[in-house]
Amino acid sequence: MIGSFKTLAAAALLAVSLGSGACLAQSVNTDRPAPLTVVTKATYDQEILKADKPVIAIVVDGNSCSAVEALFEKAAQDHPEARFVKADAAEFGVPADKVPVMFTFAPVSSRNALMFKSKFTADPATFDAFITARIEAAAKANAAQKSINEAQAEVEKTIPRWQELYQNMRDEDKAERIALNDKLSKLMQQMADGHRAIAEVLESERKVSYQ
What we know:
disordered N terminus; 5 helices; single chain; Glutaredoxin; 6-stranded mixed beta sheet
């Protein structure tokens, strides 16, 4: 599942909501960590697609409960292995009755990010475990996609020589043909393993998502 944050609202991807007007009953620590970086349409590519780690984004509006943002700010402080950002619902066309909404991204190139749904929970007792699981899932998907990309690039480099060898079919090239066949077989297996790992992540996340 690859796509852009700019189309997530319409596609209803990765979105899970607390419901209109929902707010935590717990008090908020006034000594809050640094506020989250704000993502806009203009900065989406830089903040999301060019990130070098999983990204957790929360979409809010003027009526969103500050306690929810505080949870994400604390998570950002506790989880340097991920980036935590926020975006304005109106700018990205997210309906008011769907905020606050959380999105999980696993950037795999400067143009694409893997995405998957994840159920949003604002219970402070379980929130850290929830966030940790989402980060780990995104990191696994990201690593798998990078492995696929690396194998694909190597296949593209190898194919021209492989074709040349099989067009000529010279006896003295037999050992190289066998070696390239073995290399291509391993690369195809690497890509298959990567796709399997991504499918496992998506299936796992689907089990905790709203349908």
